[in-house]
Design goal:
The complex is a heterodimer of chains A (about 150) and B (about 425).
Chain A: H1 7-19, H2 24-37, E1 51-53, E2 58-66, E3 69-76, H3 79-92, H4 97-102, H5 107-110, H6 125-145
Antiparallel strand pairs in A: 1-2, 2-3
Helix pairs in contact in A: 1-3, 2-3, 3-6
Chain B: H1 7-10, H2 13-18, E1 26-27, E2 30-31, E3 33-34, H3 45-58, H4 68-88, E4 96-99, H5 102-117, E5 123-127, H6 136-145, E6 148-152, H7 162-168, E7 173-179, H8 191-200, E8 204-208, H9 220-223, E9 227-231, E10 242-246, H10 248-253, E11 264-267, E12 272-274, H11 288-304, H12 306-325, E13 330-333, E14 342-347, H13 352-360, E15 364-365, E16 367-369, H14 374-380, E17 385-389, H15 396-413
Parallel strand pairs in B: 3-15, 5-6, 5-7, 7-8, 8-9
Antiparallel strand pairs in B: 1-2, 4-10, 9-10, 11-12, 13-14, 14-17, 16-17
The chains are: A alpha+beta (about 150), B alpha/beta (about 425).
Organism (chain A): Paraflavisolibacter caeni
Protein name (chain A): SufE family protein
Family (chain A): Belongs to the SufE family.
């Protein structure tokens, strides 16, 4: 589906949702719930070439390009990572390559989840953000050539 | 006379905890519960003081200086070598080589003894439960030389299959390199027997003591091992300092690991001659401050009494095993009859990383993942485990908190 809301607006919505939680437990409960509700990736996509490898958990990511917009689907074997993926898809999927490439994704910091992007977490989330932007860049370049 | 004073009276864990400053900090608004001791242990104030004191009062480069500071620094550094010799019961101080830690010790042997002695078709034996640091150096050596790496299998409890080990030994076996205590399972391996069998076949043995030194009494003379490697940071000492013990004759036969200052006797632009043991293997300025403070760590645990510490840790292990066994869905990985205070487990349909994150959120530090032992995880058909490992300052109350944290996390995640 088209995502006509600007990326920043969706980020702000998420920040607002998280402002309702008083405790870390509540935040995690919400993220876990998001993770559980993330639609599973079809098995055909769960192959090595789609793996974004972290030290501990694995993320599979696929991208599709339609009418100038990039669409993402992803899954992980760890549920908290799945919850974070779910938010990233909500923010980035359905936008143009340029919007995705330029997205600051500051909401991750604002909801207090920056540590999940740190190298020490080794959970592949940082690699996943990079990979999403790489896909956007690849579609942009490919499009420019054609 | 039999000692009758109850251990509990001597072993005042509350007082001990006050000697470790980091234990009083908070994580995520909760009191820190540090159960990642098999990765690295926390440091008592006396060790921190020793580090500061070294830099405040002594700091100088060792061995070559004629001035007072250099003499004092050298003396302090060499005192630790003596302490390690006693700690391992090595027959001479020349057999103790300072390294960065276990990994560097093993690599030293692989790059020197290994490259001099391993030829195409030769065999090296390791075990299924090795840390990557006792796999990769040998894989690299085998690849370079065309040698063969063989692996001792284990049973479902995480114990080595000794009959299978005997079958792996052939006349081409040159080296057996095994872990004394498994970092992921806690299993204590029968290294003395392993060494005896290897020696009968003419092979030499390296023992990876990264996990064993903090829990067990080490006697390299009694074990008769040829090499023994360990790290200081796992026994309440600083990071970046450890040692390699090697039998004198072997060390004498080996080329140096690195070239530089200290390891030479004479140098011209045409040639050089090696220094004597142990300096031949200690090129460059060593990690003096951490070496000096390592002795303080030895003194600290010696004063508490290794047997007292062991009894405390064994009690914690039994208690934690009981607590975790009672939680539905938890399966403990590693039930060796002989084990140290490491508890590795998996929870059905729950990823270890999720458990780790939720426990951290309660201030509880555990390790999750493959513990740098991927082949071992493959053996159990799991991607990784959650591991709680207990040290001399942990308490039953902390284990209760772990059990509560786990129950809550499992409920949330499943």
């Amino acid at each position: 589906m088209n995502n006509n809301k600007p990326i920043l607006e969706i980020e702000n919505e998420i920040v607002e949702e998280f402002s309702l939680f008083d405790t870390w437990d509540d935040k995690y409960e919400y993220i876990i719930d998001l993770g559980k509700r993330l639609p599973p990736l079809e098995n055909e996509h769960k192959k090595d070439e789609n793996k974004v490898r972290g030290c501990q958990s694995t993320v599979w990511l696929v991208a599709d390009y339609k009418d100038g917009r990039v669409y993402f689907k992803a899954e992980s074997d760890a549920v908290i990572v799945k919850g974070l993926i779910s938010m990233l898809i909500r923010v980035l999927s359905g936008h143009t390559p340029d919007e995705i490439i330029n997205a600051k994704l500051d909401f991750i910091n604002q909801i207090g989840m920056t540590s999940h992007l740190a190298q020490t977490r080794s959970n592949g989330l940082l690699s996943m953000v990079k990979q999403m932007k790489n896909y956007a860049l690849a579609y942009k370049v490919k499009n420019a050539v054609v | 006379m039999i000692q009758t004073a109850p251990i509990q009276q001597i072993y005042d864990v509350a007082a001990i905890r006050r000697q470790f400053p980091v234990l009083s900090r908070e994580v995520k608004g909760k009191r820190l519960i540090y159960l990642d001791n098999a990765a690295t242990s926390q440091k008592p104030q006396v060790v921190l003081d020793a580090l500061t004191r070294y830099y405040t009062d002594i700091n100088a480069n060792i061995h070559r200086g004629i001035h007072t500071l250099a003499e004092e620094a050298t003396a302090a550094f060499e005192l630790t070598r003596d302490a390690i010799q006693r700690f391992l019961n090595a027959s001479s101080r020349e057999e103790i080589i300072f390294t960065k830690g276990t990994t560097e010790s093993i690599n030293l042997v692989a790059y020197t003894w290994g490259r001099q002695n391993i030829k195409a078709g030769d065999e090296i034996i390791i075990s299924t439960m090795e840390h990557h640091s006792n796999i990769v150096p040998w894989l690299m050596l085998c690849e370079e030389k065309g040698a063969v790496l063989k692996v001792i299998p284990i049973n479902d409890d995480g114990e080595l299959l000794m009959d299978e080990y005997k079958k792996l030994i052939t006349k081409r076996t040159k080296l057996v390199s095994v872990v004394h205590v498994s970092n992921a399972l806690g299993t204590i391996n029968p290294v003395k027997e392993i060494i005896k069998i290897a020696h009968e076949a003419g092979a030499i043995v390296l023992v990876d003591g990264a996990q064993s030194t903090v829990h067990l009494d080490i006697d390299v003379t009694d074990l008769d091992c040829d090499f023994f490697a360990f790290s200081g940071h796992k026994l309440y000492g600083p990071t970046g300092i450890g040692a390699l013990y090697g039998k004198r004759d072997l060390l004498l036969s080996m080329h140096p690991f690195q070239g530089g200052g200290e390891m030479i006797k004479e140098v011209s632009f045409q040639s050089f001659s090696y220094n004597d043991l142990p300096y031949k293997f200690e090129a460059g300025t060593p990690n003096v401050a951490d070496a000096v403070a390592l002795k303080t760590a030895f003194d600290y645990t010696e004063a508490l009494g290794k047997e007292n510490i062991r009894q405390h840790e064994n009690e914690l292990l039994s208690y934690a095993t009981e607590q975790l066994d009672a939680i539905e869905g938890i399966r403990i990985i590693g039930r060796a009859k002989e084990k140290i205070s490491v508890l590795s487990f998996v929870v059905e349909n729950v990823h270890p990383q999720d458990l780790g994150i939720l426990l951290d959120n309660r201030g509880i530090a555990v390790r999750t993942g493959h513990h740098c032992a991927q082949p071992l995880m493959d053996r159990f058909g799991i991607p990784g485990t959650t591991r709680a490992s207990f040290a001399l300052y942990n308490t039953k109350e902390e284990i209760d908190e772990l059990a509560i944290g786990l129950q809550k996390a499992i409920k949330l995640l499943s």
